[in-house]
Amino acid sequence: MAEKTYAGKTVEVTDEGYLVNREDWTAEIAAEIATEAGIELSKKHYEVLEFLRKESAAGTSLSIRKVGKSGIVDIKGLYQLFPGGPLKYSSKFAGIPKPASCV
Amino acid sequence: MTEVKETPLKKVMIICAKASIEDVYAALIMANGAVMEGIEAKLFFTFFGLDAITKKQMNKLHTGVVGNPGMRMPNGWAFPTLLGAIPGVEAGVSAMMKKQMDELDVPPVDEFLDMITAGGGEIYACKMAADMFKLTKDDLCEHVKAIITVGDLYAMSGGDGTQIIFT
Questions:
Q1: What domains appear along chain B, each with residue ranges and CATH number?
Q2: Which of A35, A60, B104, B105 is the most buried (most CB within 10 A)?
Q3: Any idea where the domains of chain A sit in the sequence?
Q4: Residues of B with Cβ-Cβ distance to A103 under 8 angstroms
């Protein structure tokens, strides 16, 4: 566990940089975590993050297949939004735990 | 003390030579997992593995119920080989396995190939096996980029951090 300051707020993060408490999440924090990974968040990114936050809060195990079927973006689009980590990065920016699924 | 330096994995070449559900899915899951982690992935299907990319067969894969020591009844008993020999049993067991995978969000083969190629993964068929089974590009699904030789495969396998995996 470590502490990090994003958008003027000190939050607890895991060793891999995922927020420990999802309640800490704000759109500004998401933007700063994304900047660290070299990604600038657009409106479309935020739609994906909102979807992930909602599904994760409902206890759903997330996969890129579920995001692809959400109607927000297809899987190819998801890869374009989050290059090199469609589920890993999107989960990190959404302030939810690291994905535990193999698909 | 020697210093241990880790080189990150950059590319995986995954070879699948068998048509059973577990062999094909092991290859698909590894390839999909690689592209999801930002690792370049190329999948090479050969011999019976070609079923996984043959239009007619790809969504009808079975698992072996005869001579498969890992196969068990739902109550945990070993699956009797003679039971596996009864027509329809293999199909039933395979359907059950696919249903269980679907519940875990593991897609059918064609959709899985969609996912892998959407992430930049590439699918290839082995020339020798395709010739042997008299298959042409038209028999194969649209995800297949090309039918290639083993030499072509090795030519694609260059670069630091590349691994060849035979499932």
A1: 11-59+108-166 (3.40.1260.10)
A2: B105
A3: 2-93
A4: 29, 32-33, 104-107, 115
